[in-house]
Amino acid sequence: MKKTEKKTSAVKTIKRIIGYCKPYKLRLAAAMVFSVLYVAMNLTAPVLLGYAIDGAVGKGNVDFVSIASLLLMVGVSALCSALFVWLMNLCTYSVTYLTARDMRRDIYGKFGSVPLSVIDSSSHGDMLSRLINDVDSVSDGLLHGITQLFSGLVMILSTLGFMLVISPTIALVVVVITPLSMFVAAFITRLSQKQFREQSQTQGELSSRIEEYIGRQKLVKAFSFEKSSIESFEEINERLKVCGQKSQFYSSLANPSTRFVNGLVTAAVCIVGSLSAMSGAISVGQIATFITYANQYTKPFNEVTGVIPQLQAALAGAERVFAVLDEQDESSEDDCAVIEGKSSGSLDISHVSFSYIPERPLITDFTLKVAPGRRVAIVGPTGCGKTTFINLLMRFYDINSGAILLDGKSIFDIKRSSVRSQYGMVLQESWLYNASVRDNIAYGKPEATLDEVIAAARKAHIHHFIERLPQGYDTIISEQGGNLSQGQRQLLCIARVMLCDPPMLILDEATSSIDTRTEIKIQRAFTEMMKGRTSFIVAHRLSTIKEADIILVMKNGNIIEQGSHDELMAQNGFYRELYSSQFAPS
């Protein structure tokens, strides 16, 4: 990226962050007002101290009454300064946390509005890092920097005005020397910006690796992959350490460098001020006031360079946050209809083609007609397109060409939520969340009564197991159902679908984690539930789909055979080969 493009990108990022602050502009305005008052109180004290010093110059000329009065005023101004800076920080931090809340809410909501392909193609750990770490960087860095820049600008302009009134000559010396600190800061900023961007990206990579390592701990241990996982973690962690050290080293040069320049300013003020005092141009008290003002004039430059690391990290984090927010949402559905009641279950799939990657076709010219109430089984080798076909039916992905008609109407003319509400899905990978057993079963129908939940659990043959739990249906399930077996989690997911009672079913390896005895019971329950409902059954165990009305045999994204079990066995084709391979004697 060219320098001009980087600068433009940074400006756009800052503008977008400021846009998040707009709803809280009254608080920001209050913070600015308190900032001005804080600066005013800070500038009052040096003048009063200067007068006090002038009142003590000369033997026997000390005006104790006047000095005491001036010192009292200095104390009052100090208290007012502390009050105003507290109020300023109160307003600033409230804006900071509210803005961070809004950013998190938007990015979390974005996860639900983008196409599933965006989620599937991204590291979940990296997305979590953007939601948490990068938003924290924005709130801790850039927003604080904006308020500091404002108060610093007010301080610079105010002190400059006072110094010009006291002595234009000395003020000119300060103004000439001080910009050196800005040149130094700008040079160091360019060095550190790249490192902060790399640091933010590496943090996301590290979060992703940690999430994988902790979430898949059983697999790690089962394959004795601990050493390799630790080595991979250490490699990323080492890169994070290196880029973190570089970014901190470069940015840490800014503050001492500017302080060195500020020391030159103070020395110049003392020298020129002393010469001016000797000629009678200014008083000793004015010199003291001028030195204080010179320090206050240069202080904002120090503060700005001191927050440069936070500013850089904030910009890098904001870029990653806005990259997610800028992802294209799923296509608009403003003119789409809603299915009233339940679908009849009629599906007409005509010449459908789809590919995840354009140059790698997966499903080509797929055509199928399914009458209401039919049970359709889909079999085939791994990667042939079985699950992809289900994703297209549910509009998790949209087809590249062709048409899918539900009850004679294109699914593109029906709202996605309405299409998906017609299906009940039981997947191979069960999903439960940290809540009660009852809440997990009623996930798709929150208003269900306890009797309805129990009836669904009975159909799924898990009621007796639930009754034996410590609190029955009120027992809390740990995250991802960690306190249940895989089979028990699967049964709860089946009960969830049975409670929703959808007009169409999708069973994607739904009984793969259940023992043979329980599977027989579940198959009977499924048979009862599938009566009068269009059902799609994806299975590797061909014994589970022998009773299907029609079996689709897929290979390389195409239907190469279709018919009943007996018809396909009689054809002596690919299906018979698959079936024989499962039941051939060892």
Question: Describe it for me?
Answer:
- The protein is an alpha/beta fold.
- It has a domain at 3-197 and 250-325: ABC transporter type 1, transmembrane domain (ABC transporter transmembrane region fold, Up-down Bundle), CATH 1.20.1560.
- It is 64% helix and 10% strand.
- The strands form 3 sheets. Strands 6-9-10-3-11-12 form a 6-stranded mixed β-sheet, with helices on both faces. A 4-stranded antiparallel β-sheet has the order 2-1-4-5, covered by helices on one side. Strands 7-8 form a two-stranded antiparallel sheet.
- Helix 5 (124-166) packs antiparallel against helix 11 and helix 5 (124-166) packs across helix 12.
- The longest helix is centred in the first third of the chain and has 50 residues, at 64-113.
- The two termini are 61 Å apart.
In short:
The protein is 64% helix and 10% strand. It has 586 residues and is an alpha/beta fold. The strands form 3 sheets. Strands 6-9-10-3-11-12 form a 6-stranded mixed sheet, sandwiched between helices. It has a 4-stranded antiparallel sheet with strand order 2-1-4-5, covered by helices on one side. A two-stranded antiparallel ribbon has the order 7-8.
